[in-house]
Amino acid sequence: MAERIEVLLSEEEVDKRIQELGDQISKDYAGRQVHLVCVLKGGSFFMCELAKRITVPVSIDFMSVSSYGGDTKSSGVVKIVKDLDEPLGNKNVIVVEDIVDSGRTLSYLLEMLKDRGPADVKLCTLLDKPDRRVVDVRVDYTGFRIPDEFVVGYGLDYDQKYRNLPYVGVVKFD
Ligand code: IMP
Ligand code: MG
User: Fold this and answer.
1) pLDDT digit string (tens) for 112-122?
2) Ligand lying nearest the CA atom of residue 105
3) Whole-number Å distance between alpha carbons of 27 and 141
4) Which residues have C-beta atoms less than 6 Å from ligand 1?
5) 157: burial class by Cβ within 10 Å (0-12, 13-18, 19+)?
6) Which one of the listed residues 101, 115, 148, 174 is annotated catalytic?
7) pTM over 0.90
């Protein structure tokens, strides 16, 4: 089936918003260091752009998770495919995600990271689809709240495609 991508958030809009988030984080963490934890693969494009705009000292780490299929998926249990390289003890952690949808992945992940002794854990997501939320998750920094549509670009994929689009688009099937 042919699909086409309709622009939802232009490159300029996304860039501008990431700058605002970077400014806000730099202000909130003045005098401290932030440790950005990127959830692969989707969060990687956003995290790199965000990190460049933060003016306090930044360190980064990556983790990759996948949902268990079938019944366990609804319980929100996620499998760690790649764990962090560094311990989180006493760090000011900001988890950087592409999108919060049902909230299952993040609520599980945040609880797990909090058990590792960080000073603080916050969540920053480029996109939020609040209409789809099943599990309550506290989002500290949100790029954009978007309607319940399947989006791609800026790290988000459809069947592993379109992650490299410099804008956020909606997938349309004609
Ligand atoms: P959650 O546990 O339902 O919040 O799952 C979030 C994950 O689902 C994201 O990190 C994405 O990988 C994926 N996802 C959710 N919505 C979309 C979308 O619109 N486009 C692409 N991936 C999505
Ligand atoms: Mg993701």
Assistant:
1) 999 999 999 99
2) 1
3) 13
4) 42, 97-106, 150-152, 156
5) middle
6) 101
7) yes
